[in-house]
Hints:
The chain is an all-alpha fold. The protein has one domain. It has six helices and no strands. It has helices at about 10-45, 55-60, 70-85, 95-130, 130-135, 140-170. Helix 4 (about 95-130) runs antiparallel to helix 6 (about 140-170). The longest helix is centred in the middle third of the chain and has 36 residues, at about 95-130. The radius of gyration is 20 Å and the shape is elongated.
Amino acid sequence: xxxxxxxxxxxxxxxxxxxxxxxxxxxxxxxxxxxxxxxxxxxxxxxxxxxxxxxxxxxxxxxxxxxxxxxxxxxxxxxxxxxxxxxxxxxxxxxxxxxxxxxxxxxxxxxxxxxxxxxxxxxxxxxxxxxxxxxxxxxxxxxxxxxxxxxxxxxxxxxxxxxxxxxxxxxx
Length: 172
């Protein structure tokens, strides 16, 4: 027992830990929302009905800042390492596993999920504006492909985020 470090404590550590966990939870919720919304869009594209206002609002052009909260996970994680007074180290297996998982989540987000979301934003805006001469049916096929890509990338990111959360709690 003498080789074990004590659990870090103090108000500052607790606040940073809450920010770290909060970033992970917001990342999880926004990724779940992206997966569900992309799946809903895929289903609705098979119907001739106009897209509901909620979908048009979700795919309104602009950066998905809520999704970027996930970047708080490593930022606050590094802060926790620095504040842990040696209780945790970058070389700990569970820390390295978390960093590896985060790297893959970031690659999924930046490489697949968010680019597909941006393309869908442009397509949904064109459809909503009534640009059906060029929008339908070719855009519908492209939208279906991007919605599928978005849903799959978000699903993979969800699995990874949940796995990372389990690893961070268990600290094996």
